[in-house]
């Protein structure tokens, strides 16, 4: 019995189909036959995995992410979180405690007038004792490197810092999984890269399950597994090296090819041998040095 529980995926999406309710759809044949937002989706994520959910806009990433913490419920199929069915109303709060979500705009998630109070908020309303709140707030501040900002009002923080604060607020609640849905999309390129690295760090430090939802290939390189979506379906899965090895396919999927990948293409056609696992400029330079 214990072994069965140990091997249970944290997230188990089984044959899920979902259509957004459309007003007056009954009268509109076109809308009735419209492609569902999710179609027969199967996805298993183990506890402690770091997965990137990748695909261009409108392919169904957010819809799938919202199924993973019972914000949306499947029309067909089912979603189990640590064995709990998301349709079971009695389990939905527990599911949302386990799976925390970070959205595009951090400002929708910030509540208090001081950074440290904002992190404490979720713990306070759950009735945690003061000492434990202090410890967890301190730990969360350090985990996202914003300890020096703890006495500031959140609106004095940069976009990247505010997104870190939103992550700290979730971390303090000790979920088993964090889903970041395009959490970097309002940030500049540097802060985006920093945020992607932060997820890798959090994964490493806490062994947390991370699902990073993105349409940007360069943000997916730190994940252990990339799950590619297209038109409401999962069409490909693999390690970053496997997914990045077929650039033509990525172009077909309307994904923007990051510069290092274009560089690898040019180097290969110029006769260099570059291994598939070289995904950053530093790794590519190393490949050239080794050639
Ligand atoms: N609230 C909604 N109502 C109706 N249709 C929606 C809604 N949200 C998303 N959709 C549609 O569902 C599909 C998948 O959207 P979404 O999951 O948001 O994709 P992604 O996150 O990959 O950009 C798209 O065709 C989108 O237009
Ligand atoms: Mg989305």
From TrEMBL:
Main location, first listed in the record: membrane
Parts forming coiled coils: none
PROSITE patterns: ABC_TRANSPORTER_1, ABC_TRANSPORTER_2
InterPro entries: AAA+_ATPase, ABC_transporter-like_ATP-bd, ABC_transporter-like_CS, ABC_transpr_CbiO/EcfA_su, ECF_ABC_transporter_ATP-bd, EcfA_1, P-loop_NTPase
Keyword Magnesium in annotation: no
Compartment(s) of residence: Cell membrane
Pfam families linked: ABC_tran
Residue ranges annotated for the ABC transporter domain, each copy included: 11-256
Record-annotated membrane-spanning stretches: none
Highest taxon above the source species: Bacteria
Single GO term (MF): ATP binding
Keywords: ATP-binding, Cell membrane, Membrane, Nucleotide-binding, Translocase, Transport
CDD domains per UniProt: ABC_cobalt_CbiO_domain1
GO annotation, cellular component aspect: ATP-binding cassette (ABC) transporter complex
Protein family according to the UniProt entry: Belongs to the ABC transporter superfamily.
Protein name, per record: Energy-coupling factor transporter ATP-binding protein EcfA
């Amino acid at each position: 019995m214990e072994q069965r529980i140990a091997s249970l995926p944290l997230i188990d999406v089984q044959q899920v189909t979902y259509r957004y309710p459309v007003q007056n759809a009954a009268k509109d044949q076109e809308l009735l036959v419209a492609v569902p937002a999710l179609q027969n989706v199967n996805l298993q994520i183990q506890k402690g995995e770091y997965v990137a959910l990748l695909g261009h806009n409108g392919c169904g990433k957010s819809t799938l992410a919202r199924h993973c913490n019972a914000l949306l419920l499947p029309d067909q199929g089912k979603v189990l979180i640590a064995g709990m069915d998301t349709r079971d109303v009695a389990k939905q709060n527990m599911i949302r405690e386990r799976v925390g979500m970070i959205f595009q705009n951090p400002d929708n998630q910030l509540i208090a007038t001081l950074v440290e109070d904002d992190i404490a908020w979720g713990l306070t309303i759950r009735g945690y004792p003061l000492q434990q709140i202090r410890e967890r707030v301190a730990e969360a501040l350090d985990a996202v490197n914003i300890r020096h900002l703890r006495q500031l009002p959140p609106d004095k923080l940069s976009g990247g810092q505010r997104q870190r604060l939103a992550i700290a607020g979730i971390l303090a609640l000790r979920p088993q999984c964090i889903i970041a849905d395009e959490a970097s999309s309002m940030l500049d390129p540097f802060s985006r890269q920093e945020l992607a690295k932060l997820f890798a760090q959090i994964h490493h430090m806490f062994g947390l399950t991370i699902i990073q939802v993105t349409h940007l290939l360069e943000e997916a390189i730190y994940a252990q597994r990339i799950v590619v979506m297209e038109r409401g379906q999962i069409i490909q899965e693999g390690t970053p090296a496997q997914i990045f090895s077929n650039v033509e396919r990525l172009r077909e999927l309307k994904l923007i090819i990051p510069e290092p990948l274009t560089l690898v293409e040019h180097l290969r056609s110029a006769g260099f041998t570059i291994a598939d696992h070289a995904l950053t400029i530093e790794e590519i330079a190393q490949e050239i040095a080794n050639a």
